[in-house]
């Protein structure tokens, strides 16, 4: 560490080698992201984006529905992490519909995934934003949600 004229402590200037290594790592990560985008997970996520856009285009629900949670909008980051991690090869599984539940997918963006299992067992991470309209009794706490689904 070095002291500046004002007395502040500053870190030494990074070596050119370190910068080259960082640039190479960034280039490799970008190449992996592009490769992955063309892979099964990338295609699956693209289909989900298209279906999600089609759902958003539907007319709004009327009474008695007061709140609609769209976890693929506000919890896309952990959802896409889950898909990229676990949707690498073809599977003989088809989800026709998923009941998100107030303490499962509605919190995490992961199908059938309550927060503890998503975070600790599946090792999925990512930021969960607040939905535009939350029911006061069903706040979205994301991966820190302490409640579990009862089903």
UniProtKB/TrEMBL annotation:
GO molecular function annotation: DNA binding; oxidized pyrimidine nucleobase lesion DNA N-glycosylase activity; single-strand selective uracil DNA N-glycosylase activity
Which residue intervals make up region (Disordered)?
Answer: 1-32, 131-151
Q: Name one GO biological process term.
A: base-excision repair
The record's annotation in Gene3D superfamilies points to: Uracil-DNA glycosylase-like domain
**InterPro entries assigned to the protein according to its UniProt record, in alphabetical order:** SMUG1 (IPR039134), Uracil-DNA_glycosylase-like_sf (IPR036895)
Which keywords annotate this record? DNA damage, DNA repair, DNA-binding, Hydrolase
Biased amino acid composition, Low complexity: 1-14
Highest taxon listed in the record's lineage: Eukaryota
Q: Spell out the protein name for this chain.
A: SMUG1 glycosylase
């Amino acid at each position: 560490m070095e002291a500046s004229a004002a007395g502040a402590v500053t870190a030494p200037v990074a070596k050119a080698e370190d910068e080259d290594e960082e640039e190479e790592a960034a280039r490799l990560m970008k190449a992996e992201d592009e490769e992955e985008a063309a892979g099964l997970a990338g295609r699956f996520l693209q289909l989900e984006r298209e279906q999600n856009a089609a759902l958003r285009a539907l007319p709004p629900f009327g009474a008695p529905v007061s709140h609609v949670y769209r976890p693929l909008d506000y919890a896309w980051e952990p959802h896409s992490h889950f898909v990229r991690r676990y949707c690498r090869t073809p599977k003989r599984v088809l989800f026709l519909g998923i009941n998100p539940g107030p303490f499962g997918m509605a919190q995490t963006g992961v199908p059938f995934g309550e927060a503890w299992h998503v975070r600790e067992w599946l090792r999925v991470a990512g930021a969960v934003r607040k939905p535009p309209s939350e029911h006061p009794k069903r706040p979205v706490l994301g991966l820190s949600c302490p409640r579990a689904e009862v089903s």
